[in-house]
Amino acid sequence: MTQPRALTGIQPSGIPHVGNLKGAIEPALTLQETHEPFYFIASYHALTTVRDADVLRRFQFEAAATWLAFGLDPDRTSLFLQQDVPEVAELSWILSCITNQGLLERAHAYKAARDTGREINVGTFCYPVLMAADILIYDSNHVPVGKDQKQHVEMARDMAQRFNDRYGDVFVLPEPLIREEVATVPGLDGRKMSKSYDNTLPLFLPPKKLRKRIMKIVTQTSDVEAPKDPDTCNVFALYKLFATEEQQQVLAARYRAGGMGFGNAKQELFEVLDAVLEEPRARYEELVADPARVEAVLDRGAARARSVAQDTMGRVRGACGLSNIVCE
Ligand code: ADP
Ligand code: TRP
Predict the structure, then answer these.
(1) How far is 45 from 13, CA to CA, in rounded Å?
(2) What is the CA radius of gyration of the chain?
(3) Which atom of ligand 1 is nearest to the CA of 23?
(4) What is the pLDDT of residues 101-144, one digit of tens each?
(5) For residues 70 and 97, what is the distance between their CA atoms, to the nearest angstrom?
(6) Contact 143 CB / ligand 2 (< 6 Å)
């Protein structure tokens, strides 16, 4: 029996962080058992914000090595760079021709960029169309993402439906897969953890630096003696993502009892997180020392992905009249 296909992308627009791990990487990796996964580094998307070629190359490598360090199995999963399947840019154009401007104007990410008051590039406006092309070109059934990407996946589904209504059954209708318990990981300042807010816990900091970042988490100011509420505390929200049930109960009881400062809670968070990250950090360092290994994985993934994409594009071109035959 063929397995459903899972697809997700991560932009190489900064250093991968705990939000990416919990919102996207871990959920995606669990699907290796049940799905045929296609995971890629969304470099075309990152071009909307990253303007330095060397920086982009470094971020791409870091993103790929991160997937591998956390257990991506290249025999099961196709890991590749978005630009190694340039067909996706062609599909993006075709989809843009059946997509109304109004739909894109409703995208949260676009509205947030517009509300900064800065000039916006057309790539930022068309971002959801390219993302739809990414999803639809691989006949993806399931798209594991954080909650912030739900609307984009729904837009991809809308575009697929619109295309199918007009041209026949060409695209699979995709569904987002969102883990409610980690839907939005908070950052150091309590907003969504995001590279764009500089409020992240990067995954591969040396332990000392990681601890320093953790100590910067914003907490309510209250005296050490006062009882504290774990459920409204950022430190505890992050702790929950990594600690066992029992560890959570112990720390929650210490919050409620009073007599514990937030510094102690941060130290507890550092210890669980550091223990979880220790092995992947070592694997990551091995990969940094052997970039050819990462490149070989990406080449293999790209070959598989491209072959699927070319099949889909054959169907798409035929359906909308772009095939080379004069009259069919
Ligand atoms: P960033 O916001 O840091 O730029 P990306 O947009 O590259 O992160 O996100 C890559 C993936 O990680 C997406 O699936 C996104 O939903 C997920 N993700 C990013 N930040 C978080 C977060 N704070 N909580 C949960 N998931 C997240
Ligand atoms: N927009 C996604 C993000 O910022 C990255 C992405 C690009 C993506 N194309 C995708 C995610 C396709 C899932 C499917 O996180």
Answers:
(1) 9
(2) 22
(3) 26
(4) 999 999 998 999 999 999 999 999 999 999 999 999 999 999 99
(5) 39
(6) yes
Q: Is the entire prediction scored with pTM above 0.70?
A: yes
- pLDDT band at residue 1 using 50, 70 and 90 as cut-offs: low
Task: Tell how far the Cα of 325 is from the centroid of ligand 1, in angstroms.
Answer: 43
pLDDT higher than 80, residue 299: yes
Ligand 1 center to residue 323 CA distance, Å? 38
Burial pattern 229-257, b for ≥16 Cβ within 10 A else e, equals ebeebbbbbbbbbbbeeeebeebbebbee
Q: How far apart are CA 170 and CA 148, in angstroms?
A: 27
155 CB near ligand 2 (under 6 Å): no
Q: What is the chain's mean pLDDT, rounded?
A: 95
- Which ligand 1 atom sits nearest the alpha carbon of residue 195? 3
Closest CA to 87 of 320, 328, 319, 302: 302
Q: Which ligand is nearest to the CA of 131?
A: 2
pLDDT, position 221: 74
CB-ligand 2 contact for 9 (6 Å cutoff): yes
